[in-house]
Amino acid sequence: MRVPLAALLLAGLSACTEPSPDAYVTRSASATAGEPAGTDARNEACQVQPGRATPADRAVLRAREVFCGGWTQPAARVVELQGSASEADLDALAASGLWRSWLEQRVTCGPPTRTTIAGGASARLLACTRRAGGWPHVAVVAAGPSGPVVADGVATAMPVIERLAAGQSSGGGGAGGRSAALELAVARLSAGAFGASDVGRYEQLMALGRDLNQTENFAAAEDAYRAALAVQERVLGRDNPNAATAMLHLAVNLSNQKRLAEAQMLLDRAATLAPRAADPATAARVLHYRGLHALNAGEPAAAVDLLQQAEAGYIALVPNLTAPREGDASELLADPLQQSAVLGLAEAKRNRAVALSRAGRGQEASALAAEARQVLRRAGLEPNMMVGRSLRTEAGADIRLGRSDAAAGLLERAAGRFGIAAPGERPEAVTLFLAGQQRLRAGRRAEALSAFRAGADILRARQIGLPVGLVIPYLDALDQEAAVGGGATLALRAEMFGAAQLAQRSSTARYVQQASARLGVSEGNQAVQGAVRGLQDADRELRELFAERDASGAQNAALDDRIAAAQQRRAEAESQVAAAAPGYRQLLLAAVDADSVARALGPNEALVTMLLGPQQGFVIAVRHGRVDARRIPVGEEAVAALVSRVRRSSEIGPGGVPRFDAESAQELHRLLIAPLAGTLDGAETLVVAPDGPLLALPFGLLLAGPVQGDALGAAPWLIRRHAIVHVPSPQTLVTLRAAGTGSTAPLPYVGFGDFVPPSGAQFARSFPADRCGRDARLATGLGRLPGTRAEVTASRALLGAAPDRAILGADFTLPNMRRQRLDQYRVVHLATHALLPGELSCLTEPSIVASPPAGAPSADPAFLKASEVLDIKMDADLVILSACNTGGPGGEGGGEALSGLARAFFYAGARGLMVTHWAVDDAAAALTVADTLRRQQGGASSAASLRGAQMLILDEAGRNLPAAFAHPYYWAPFVLIGDGRRSGSAAGAGAQAPAPARL
C-alpha cells in the first residue's frame, strides 16, 4: 500500500528544497472538530477524529488522528489492524514491515522495548526522533481489543495513544494507573519538556518562512525562521543537532539580504551540528547553502565547487534516481526523505547553473539548468514554482550570451509557471519585469511595455516593490515612447511617475516588514492587532490555496471558487486594517498616481521625485497638475560619490570645518534640479522625495551657480529659492496631507536631552564581542551632549511650557518618556544620539538613545527602536530630533534608516520630523531650533519657519554672527521630513512668516 500522492506533494515547496515538516500529517481545516480525547502529559486538551490510514501489511479496521493544545496538525495517529496480536506478531510489526518502513521515512527510531500499556495489554515502545525538526517522537505497537494497534506521535500524546489503543472511552481515564509504556516515554523522551503546541508553533513558523521565502520576501522569512529556531532551542537546547535545519534557512535568508557576516556565523554553527542531525540530507544542505552564500558574496567559482559537492550528497540519498529503471517514480514520492533529496538535487543543479553563468560559462549553465528540470520530471516532481525558477535560470544564461529574444521567451514561460504557483506574487512580477527588459534590449518596445505593465499591476495590487535596477528599464521604455511624441506623451509622463514608485530598496523593504510585524503583535491597540493579523492570515490562506492548485495540476472549479472567496476575504481584511490603522498603507508604501499628488499640492508647491539606477536615473516633477520627467545621464555610484564629497566637506573633522565642496554641490543641482527648471521656477515650497544616497543629503545646500570667492553667505543656495520639505515617498505626502493642517494637542512642548550614556559593560552585553565587537566599540564612544540641556531649556521657555516639561539627564529614560502622554504636545523635542544600521552592522533598525533606567543589565532598555515608535501615540506638528548624524554617513544605509525612522513617527501621529544630518554646532543648533519655533508660533508653516531660520544664519553671518556660520556645517544640517505645521490650506512657503529676528 502506498501513501496517497496528495498527502505527499506539499503546498509549500520552497527554493530551499526542504519539504514541509508536516509532510506526513494531514492538513485539515476541521482538524479540531472531533470528539474529546482527554488530556495529554502536558495537561493540554485533546480531540480525536477519523484520519487517513498509514501503510500496513494488514487490513486497516480504523484510523484516527489526535489533536492537542490547539495544534492544527495531528499530535498522534492511531491505526487499528485486523488479525492476531500475539507476542510474535507485535515483535514483527515493531521490527519490520510496511508500517515500520513508513515510520522510518519520517522518524529515526531505536530498537523496540517490550512493555505494557494501561490495563496491562502487551506493547512495544520505540523511542524516536523526527527527522524534520529533531523533535522527540514515540511509536507504539500494542495488543488492542480487536487486533494489533500501531501508533505514533509526540511523546506527550502517549496517554491519549494508549487510551485509544486499549479501546477505552476517548475521554476516559486509563485503567490500572500510569502504564509502563508511559513511564518509559517520560523517562526516555523527557515528555514534560514540551508539548504538541510547541511542535505546532515550530512547524507553523517553518511553514510561514517557506511561504515568505518562496515569494522572495527574505526579510519577513528571516523573522519566521528566527522565531522557529528560538522555539526549537528553548525546548531542545542550543546545541541540539537538529537545529541545523532552521539555522540554515535563517542563514540563507540573511545572506539573500547581503547580511553576509551574520549568515556566515550561522552556516558555521550549522556545519558543526549537521553530522549528528536526524535528517540525513542536512550535510548536503549545508554544502548547498554555503554555495548560495558564496553566490551572494560574489564568489561564483567557490559556489560552483560547493554546489557540486551538495549534488553528490543528494544523489547518495536517491541512488535510484540516476539508475536505469522501468515504470514511474512513485516510490520516490512515497518517501519524504528521498523527495527532499530530489528537490535538493534539482535546486543545487539550478543554483550551480546560476554560478556558472555568473562565471562566464553560459553554455554549460544553460545545459545544467535544463538538466535540473529533467531531474524533477524523472522523479514526477514538477512544482510550478521550481520549474519557473529553472526557466528563469536558463534565461539568465541566455542573457549573458546576448540572446535577448530567447531569454525573453523563457522568462515569459517562467512567469506563466509562477502565475500558476503563486499568482499575483513577487516572483511573477520580477520575471515579467525581466522579460520586459529583454524585449526592450531586442528593440521590441511594445512587447516590453506590455510585460512591464502586467508586472506593475501585480506590484500595485500587492503593495510591494522591486529593486531599482529592475524598474529603471520600465521608465526607459516609457521615456523612449514619449520621445516619439503624439497625444499620449502627457499620459506616458504620468505613467513614468507611477512607475518610479514601484522601486524599493532593501533597507526600506525590511523596515516595512518590521513595522507590519510590530503592528501585528501590538499590545497598545487591540483593534490594530486583530486587523493586521487578520490580513496576514488572509495572505497565508491565499498562498496555501494557490499552492494547492499548483500541486493538483488540473482544472478544479471548486478550488477556483475557494480562491475567489479567499481573495474577497483578503480585500475585506485590508479594509479593516485601513479603518483601524489609517497610517498602515503609508507603512506599506502603497503607490499613488500623479493626480493624487497634484491634488495634495498647494498652488505654490512642486514635488520632485527621483530614481537612481546602475547606469542612469530619472527625475520627475509634479506641478499644477502636470508631470515633467527627465533622464539623468549618470548612475547611482556617480551620484553617491558626489553626495559623499558634499557631506565630507560639510561635517567637522579633526582639522576643524573643511572647505565646502561647492563644485560637487553645483553638479548635483545641475543633474537633479536644473533639468526641471521650467516646471519648478516660482514654486515657494519644493517637496523632494530622494532616492538611495540622496536620502543622506540636505537639498537646501545644493548650489544653482558658482560661489564668488569665499562668499558662501551670498551663494545661490537652493534654500534661497524654495522652502524645502523632504518626504520618504510621494505617497507619504498624500497621507500626511489627508491628516489636516495642524495639531489639536492642548500643550505646547515637551523636551528631552542631556542623556546619560549606557556604560561600556551595558553596551558590551547588547553587542556581544564575538559578533558585534566593532559595534560595541563605536557605541561606547557615544559621548554625552551637554549642549542639548540649554537647547531644550531655551525651547521650553520660548514656547511657554512648564519647567517640568524639560526632562534631562538621568531622568531622560524611555519609561519616563512614555509616561508623558506624548499625544498631548504640539512639539516633542528629542535632543540625543541616534544609532543607525548603516553605522552599526548588528543593529537591524534605527534607534534613538536615552539614559538607561537604573539597574539596567544592558544598553537595550535605552534604545527606542523605530518599530517601537509605532506603539506611541502623538498629535505633534513637529518632532525635533537634534541628534548626532541621524542622516547617516551616505550610501543607502543611513538615509534609508532615517526614512524608516520618519515613517515610524508619522504613523505615531507626527506631521513632521525636524532632524540633523550630521553632528551639529551647539550654538547654531540652539539658534536654528529656537528661531524655527518662534516663526512657527507666529503662524508660519514648519517649512517656511525652518527656511527662515536658515536664511537668518546665512544673512547674519559676518554681521551679528561669526562669518564662519555661512558654511553649511552650521546652517544646513537640519531638514524637515514631512509637513509639520502648515499655514492654512494653501501651505505656501512664505505665507504669514514673521519678520526676521535681529541679532
TrEMBL record:
Pfam families, sorted: CHAT (PF12770), TPR_12 (PF13424)
CHAT domain segment(s): 663-979
Annotated SUPFAM superfamilies: TPR-like
InterPro entries the record matches: CHAT_dom, TPR-like_helical_dom_sf
Gene3D superfamilies in UniProt: Tetratricopeptide repeat domain
Annotated protein name in UniProt: CHAT domain-containing protein
Organism this protein belongs to: Neoroseomonas eburnea
